[in-house]
Amino acid sequence: MSIRIEPAELRFPFALNTATVQKLRIVAVGASTTFKIKTTNPKRYSVRPNLGIAWMGAAAEVTVQLCAFKELPPDLAKCKDKFQVLSLVLSDEHSQQLEALGSEERRAIAIEPEPSPVQPGPSPSPNKVAGW
């Protein structure tokens, strides 16, 4: 395993009109590791940062916030919200390259999509069927 997550379980005390915040630590064990956090209920929780790098021997701090409610949600008693932490171990070469970059440059790399290898071509006419 390349990361350790502390605490293993998040519990949010419920209070009306008050947001509840929990801290999550992602500790890299053995090698620097990238991570991304997903939730089954993104409208209810704010996760910041939701992606990042846990450097070898260090911990990344993540804040998970349960949004404030004006009234008691009807599904609160049977709430089964979950979080998923995806991780990818960085090679030594990639780790050194990313450490050499500034934090803003690393953020730009994480946000920019990879260019598509497929070149767009002319779109076919909707009235024509291929091969006819």
User: Order of helices and strands, N to C?
Assistant: EEEEEEEHH
Count the E strands.
7
CATH architecture of the domain at 1-10 and 19-70: Sandwich
What is the CATH topology of the domain at 1-10 and 19-70?
Immunoglobulin-like
Helix content: 10-25%
User: Structural class, judged by helices and strands?
Assistant: alpha+beta
Q: Strand order of the main beta sheet, please?
A: 1-2-6-4
The radius of gyration is 21 Å
Strand content: 25-35%
Tell me the span between the first and last alpha carbons.
55 Å
Mean pLDDT: 83
Strand count, sense and barrel status of the largest sheet are: 4 strands, antiparallel
Low-confidence stretches: 123-132
In short:
It contains two helices and seven strands.
List the helices and strands and how they pair.
Elements lengths: L2 E4 L13 E9 L4 E7 L5 E4 L2 E4 L4 E8 L16 E7 L2 H9 L2 H9 L21
Antiparallel strand pairs: 1-2, 2-6, 3-5, 3-7, 4-6
Please characterize this protein's 3D structure.
The chain is an alpha+beta fold. It has a domain at about 1-10 and about 20-70: Immunoglobulin-like. Helices cover about 15% and strands about 35% of the residues. It has 2 helices and 7 strands. The strands form 2 sheets. A 4-stranded antiparallel sheet has the order 1-2-6-4, with no helix packed on it. Strands 5-3-7 form a 3-stranded antiparallel sheet, with no helix packed on it. Mean pLDDT is about 85; it is low at about 125-130.
